[in-house]
Specification:
The structure is a single chain. This protein is 42% helix and 11% strand. The protein is α/β, with parallel strands linked by helices and 273 residues long. The protein has two domains: 18-59; 81-271, Glycoside hydrolase/deacetylase (TIM Barrel, Alpha-Beta Barrel), CATH 3.20.20. The strands form two sheets. Strands 1, 2, 3, 6, 7 and 8 form a six-stranded parallel sheet that branches. α7 links the parallel β4 (175-176) and β5. α1 packs antiparallel against α2. The longest helix is centred in the first third of the chain and has 19 residues, at 18-36. The two termini are 13 Å apart. The protein binds zinc ion (ZN). The site of zinc ion has 5 residues, from loops.
Length: 273
Amino acid sequence: MNARHPAPGQPRRWRPTPLVGGAAAVHAGALAALAVAPATWPWAAGGVIASHLALTAAGLWPRSTLLGHNWTTLPEQPGARIAITIDDGPDPDVTPRVLDLLDAHRARATFFCIGERARRHPRIVEAIVARGHAVENHSQRHRHHFSLQGPGALRREIDAAQTTLGEIAGTPPLFFRAPAGLRNPFLEPVLCGFGLQLASWTRRGFDTRTGDAALVARRLLDGVAPRDILLLHDGHAARDANGAPVVLAALDTVLRVAAERGLHTVTLREAIV
Ligand SMILES: [Zn+2]
């Protein structure tokens, strides 16, 4: 994470990262080379293809900062703090039980909600906020081709969720997390326009795929340290052999062990410095 980047909430000027700026320069250089020396086309094409591969690889790596600012840990601050982030809800079955669990441990969490789901279950979103947690933007529809879209479609998708979640939660989101963490170079300029900060994670439990809560908890706790951002899911939650959403037992273990190790939970917006 870059400690110098501006706090979320205010539109900010977009500045291309070295990778994005370099890719743009390669494209401009290739066009110029073709204009003056058409025979150089294999080199020009090769450069353009290589820059696209580099941008695509950066977008497929959720924790990379090569395409723009990205919280992969909490900002540096005194105190042993971690953030629990919970994606893909609200879910009428799972989210209320997650909220009870958080209350029982006196823990705070950040919920990256899907706009359409929030519209279907507004009372649950209100409960998230009323119980001291934060609601952030995880896109309106959580489409799997999110990262294949151009700037206009990205803006509409994020704007719709920003409006939906802001209306229901009473305060607009400050953070955005891309569906599946996948991005493209158009995302960062769009986020700058909304004053949204991209947030990924430090560790994830793969709790949408793993039906073993102990394994999910181990993945999250193995090496857990102050400033870590942990990723779990209340929507799309995998179920254990008894049909229980694994997030419940996994989160219970994570919160118990975190407390034993003196780690205090905060929401992402509480961690803004
Ligand atoms: Zn998601």
